[in-house]
Design a protein that fits this description.
By secondary structure, the chain is an alpha/beta fold. Helices cover 39% and strands 18% of the residues. It folds into 2 domains: 194 residues, inorganic pyrophosphatase (n-terminal core) (Alpha-Beta Complex); 124 residues, Diaminopimelate Epimerase, Chain A, domain 1. The structure holds manganese (II) ion (MN). Manganese (II) ion binds next to loops.
C-alpha cells in the first residue's frame, strides 16, 4: 500500500474547488514531465469540474505535440486566478506568466524547494517525477482520470526516471505505476514509440557528441555546440538535451555538460548531469537550477562558459579527493 498523504490531497482539492479560473504553468525548456503533468492535470480538472476555466500555458514544443495541445489565452484578461505551478521550484524559470494576475498558488513539484512557496504546497524531492505525484493525487482523490490522462502521466514519469533506470526510481515509483495499471489499461508501446523514436539525423548528431566531448583528468566531460554544428545535423538547440541522459553509465564520466548556443534567442543553454558532485547549487549561480544531479541554466555572456567549465571540473576534483579521503 502506498503511503497516501490524504491531508495534502484534501487541501489540493479544496483550493482547486475554490477557484473558477485556473492557470497551470511549468518550467521553460519543457520536457515531457513538465508538459504531460500540466496537460494531464488540466484535462482532469476539466472532466471533474466542467464549469471551471482551466488553461495549460507556456511555449509549445512540436516534438511533444502527442501529449496534447497547450492553451493560447490572453492572461491579462483573467481575474482572480489560481496559479498552479508544476515541476518548477523558482519563479525565474516559470514559462509565460508575466501577464497573469493570480490570487493564490498551488505548487506540486519534485525539485528541491527554492523561492516558490504555494498557498498549498506539495514538494517532495524523493519523487521521480511530477507525473508520479499527480498519479498519486488522481488515484486518491475525486479528480477524474481517463486513459489519455493516464498515458500522459506514465510518459512523464518514465521520461524523468529514464524508464526506471535513474537513481530517482524508488519502490514507491513501482507501486505508483502498479496502482495506475491496476486502475486503467494504457498503451505502453505507443508511449515508448512517441518518446523514443528518433531520426537518423538526430543519431548522427549524437555520434558527434560522443566523438567530440572533451574529458578532463577529473572525469568531467563537456562540449560547446555552436549554431553551425546544429545546422549541419539539421537539429535545433534543444537537441543536446535529448541526449544528455544517454551519457549516464559511461565509466570515464563523473559529471558532464553540454553548452549549446541558441542563435534564435541569442543565449547559451546548458544541460548538466552528474554521478558524483552535487551540481544544482552551481547551476543556481548561473540563474538555473534543478535536481542535485540533473540541472540546467542559461546565460548570454560567453565568458561564463569557461567559468562554468572550470567550476564543474573542480567540483569533480573535490569529489574524487573526498571519495579517496
Ligand atoms: Mn520533472
Amino acid at each position: 500500500m502506498i503511503k497516501i498523504k490524504r491531508e495534502i490531497f484534501k487541501q489540493i482539492i479544496r483550493i482547486i474547488k475554490s477557484y473558477n479560473n485556473i492557470v497551470i504553468a511549468r518550467h521553460i525548456s519543457p520536457d515531457p514531465d513538465a508538459i504531460a503533468s500540466q496537460i494531464a492535470l488540466r484535462d482532469s480538472i476539466r472532466l471533474t469540474f466542467p464549469n471551471k476555466n482551466v488553461y495549460a500555458i507556456g511555449a509549445g514544443v512540436s516534438k511533444f505535440k502527442y501529449l496534447g495541445e497547450l492553451d493560447h489565452v490572453d492572461l491579462s484578461s483573467i481575474e482572480h486566478a489560481l496559479l498552479v505551478v508544476l515541476d518548477v521550484p523558482n519563479f525565474a524559470r516559470i514559462d509565460g506568466i508575466d501577464d497573469l494576475h493570480y490570487d493564490a498558488i498551488l505548487k506540486i513539484d519534485h525539485h528541491p524547494a527554492m523561492d516558490i512557496i504555494g498557498d498549498v504546497d506539495w514538494t517532495d524531492e524523493h519523487k521521480s517525477s511530477t507525473c508520479e505525484m499527480l498519479i498519486n493525487l488522481l488515484l486518491n482523490s475525486r479528480l477524474v482520470i481517463d486513459q489519455k490522462i493516464a498515458e500522459n502521466l506514465y510518459a512523464g514519469l518514465v521520461f524523468d526516471n529514464d524508464r526506471f533506470l535513474l537513481a530517482n526510481t524508488t519502490k514507491e515509483t513501482f507501486e505508483t505505476v502498479t496502482e495506475l495499471l491496476n486502475t486503467i489499461p494504457i498503451n505502453i508501446s505507443s508511449i515508448y514509440d512517441n518518446l523514443y523514436t528518433k531520426k537518423f539525423a538526430e543519431l548522427k548528431f549524437y555520434a558527434h557528441l560522443i566523438n567530440h566531448i572533451e574529458i578532463t583528468d577529473n572525469g568531467f566531460g563537456y562540449l560547446v555546440i555552436d549554431d553551425e554544428t546544429l545546422q549541419k545535423y539539421h537539429v535545433d538547440a534543444a537537441a543536446p538535451s535529448h541526449f544528455i541522459n544517454d551519457f549516464y553509465h559511461i565509466e570515464e564520466l563523473l559529471c558532464w555538460c553540454f553548452i549549446t548556443y541558441d542563435e534564435r534567442n541569442k543565449i547559451y543553454k546548458v544541460n548538466i548531469r552528474s554521478r558524483g558532485p552535487v551540481i544544482n547549487l552551481i547551476a543556481e549561480q548561473y540563474g538555473g537550477g534543478g535536481h542535485k544531479y540533473a540541472s540546467g541554466c542559461r546565460f548570454t555572456n560567453k565568458a561564463d562558459i569557461d567559468k562554468l567549465v572550470k567550476e564543474l571540473d573542480s567540483a569533480c576534483k573535490d569529489y574524487i579527493s573526498q571519495e579517496n579521503g
